[in-house]
Amino acid sequence: MMIGVGDKLPTEGLKTMGADGPEAVDMAAKLAGRKVVIFSLPGAFTPTCSAKHLPGFVEKADEIKAKGVDEVMCLAVNDAFVMGAWAKDQGVDGKVTMLADGSAAFTKALGLVLDLEAAGLGIRGQRFAMIAEDGVVTHLAVEEPGAFEVSSADAILKAL
User: Fold this and answer.
1) pLDDT value at position 148?
2) How far from chain centre, in Å, is Cα 89?
């Protein structure tokens, strides 16, 4: 079942790239008493994700945070090494926290898996964006397959 507005977010299974390698992310601490934006995309280094989705949030991170958001997070079913390399490639520079869901455990718990096995891309996450307050979803926008409209940084700015 897909997560919805009013539901509590899962807190397990995510990693980020630290100075000494992959590190577990304490999502319970990141969510507690905070307002966050989490956006998900099918994969690092893929066309729309690299040309539009992540760059939009990097560019608009300060505007989003000015609306009371404590942290902007990018989620993908990739490993922490890939997410770390992509962050460098995209010039993220701490504006967006890169969350690696290597086994898709977090994405599966959200009910937002995208099965691209027939295309040779494996299990991925659907393209979406959400706002959560104190770990509870207050806004969720899931894209139709192949679309990029409701999960953009501009769309989140309007929702805030």
Assistant:
1) 94
2) 17
Q: What is the topology classification, in CATH, of domain 15-159?
A: Glutaredoxin (3.40.30)
Return the bridge partners of 75, or none. Answer: 40, 99
Closest CA to 44 of 57, 54, 35: 54
Give the pLDDT score at 122. 62
Exactly one of 17, 27, 49, 112 is catalytic; name it.
49
pLDDT of residue 123: 80
pTM of the model: 0.95
Q: Closest Cα to residue 34, out of 135, 119, 154, 142? A: 135
Active site residue 49: yes
For residue 133, how many C-alpha atoms fall within 13 Å in the half-sphere facing its CB? 7
Longest dimension (CA), the chain: 42
